[in-house]
């Protein structure tokens, strides 16, 4: 049941990400590498949400992540599923993990979820 809910949340996120210029979904390792290169060569702040389709907490935070991408338009938002991007996400030990970038450098990392906690961290880094 949880996996199905997560897949539905991810599909909804994918359909909405096409309309939101600051939210990208990495469908595979190669795409994620391209997105990472863009983040590392950019001055724009960014946040990467590492999740998994089987992770119940990840599926709960996905809709909030999408909604927050509309509220923090200065940040680039990225979602990477660790099962779809196994080579580039092998360093991730917990899901969800949020990494925050500024001036091409990782400046912060947050484990777990909570919409208010995520909002506060986004506000801090925006």
TrEMBL record:
**Which portions of the sequence form the region Disordered?**
1-23
The source's superkingdom equals Eukaryota
Where does the record place a coiled coil?
none
User: Where is each Thioredoxin domain found?
Assistant: 38-119
* CDD domains named in the record: TRX_family (cd02947)
Compositional bias per record (Basic and acidic residues), positions renumbered to this chain: 1-22
Q: Which PANTHER family does the record associate with it? A: THIOREDOXIN-LIKE 3-3
Q: What is this protein called?
A: Thioredoxin-like 3-3
| Species this protein is from | Camelina sativa (False flax)
């Amino acid at each position: 049941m949880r996996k199905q809910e997560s897949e539905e949340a991810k599909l909804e996120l994918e359909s909405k990400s096409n309309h939101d210029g600051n939210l990208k979904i990495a469908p595979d390792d190669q795409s994620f590498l391209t997105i990472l290169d863009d983040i590392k060569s950019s001055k724009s702040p960014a946040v990467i949400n590492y999740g998994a389709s089987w992770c119940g907490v990840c599926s709960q935070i996905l809709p909030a992540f999408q909604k927050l991408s509309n509220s923090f338009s200065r940040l680039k938002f990225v979602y990477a599923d660790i099962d779809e991007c196994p080579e580039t996400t092998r360093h991730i030990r917990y899901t969800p993990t949020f990494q925050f970038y500024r001036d091409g450098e990782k400046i912060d990392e947050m484990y777990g979820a909570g919409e208010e906690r995520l909002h506060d961290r986004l506000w801090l880094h925006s």
